[in-house]
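stuck on this chain:
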Amino acid sequence: METIEIVENKSSKKMNNESTTNEQVAVKNKNKTFAIILVVLVALGGYYGVSKYIHGEQKRTLSDIQI
């Protein structure tokens, strides 16, 4: 009887480890997706900001021209 209980405990531990591993993989995938989206948004925001800054600098230098 004791041998059967030991085998059952090992198999239940194995099942728990598999479910934990699946959850960890899901969390890692979510973190990877979040990181990719964050990098894309920061890159787009940087591009937008730099383009607006350059446009503003050009407009200011054109405004300072005296006739």
Summary: The two ends are 103 Å apart (CA to CA). The CA atoms of residues 28 and 65 lie 56 Å apart.
